[in-house]
Amino acid sequence: MTTPSEIKTYSVLLCTKHPLTTPEFDHCATGEDYETLEEAGGFNARYFADIPFVWLDGPGVSEVRKLRAPKPDTDDDADWRRERAMQAGMAFGCDGYNDEMGY
To answer: Is residue 15 left, alpha or beta, with left meaning phi > 0 and alpha meaning psi from -120 to 50?
Structure first.
């Protein structure tokens, strides 16, 4: 049985869409619960680079912070090209990297 001291009243949720303007709640990926507002306010979201919104919710507070602008949906293969070049560079040195990048 849960005692009152074990109940955590503040939640920090990581969401892919703005939680207060999107009616469905299937866009919140993960979260943490905290006992105090100070603990919840200290949540460090820097390891969640792909998540655009952090929602702090609890008694007397419902705050959404934007972490980053959503990535544009493009078919640009530049990331894969750089990855292939990195792999070629590890295998064949500078020449392999330069060949893959087209230098």
So the answer is: beta
For residue 47, give Cα distances in angstroms to 9, 43, 52, 57, 71: 24, 11, 12, 20, 17
- Which residues on neighbouring strands pair with residue 55, listed in sequence order? 13, 64
The string of pLDDT tens digits covering residues 83-101 is 999 999 999 999 999 999 8
How many other C-beta atoms lie within 10 A of the C-beta of residue 14? Answer: 21
3-state secondary structure of 11: strand
pTM above 0.85, yes or no: no
Which of the two residues, 74 and 60, has the higher pLDDT score? 60
* Enclosing domain of residue 93: 76-103
Three-state secondary-structure class, residue 80: helix
Kindly tell me if the per-residue pLDDT of 26 is higher than 50: yes
Q: Note whether residue 24 is domain-resident.
A: yes
Question: What is the SS3 assignment for 97?
Answer: helix
Q: Are residues 50 and 81 in the same domain?
A: no
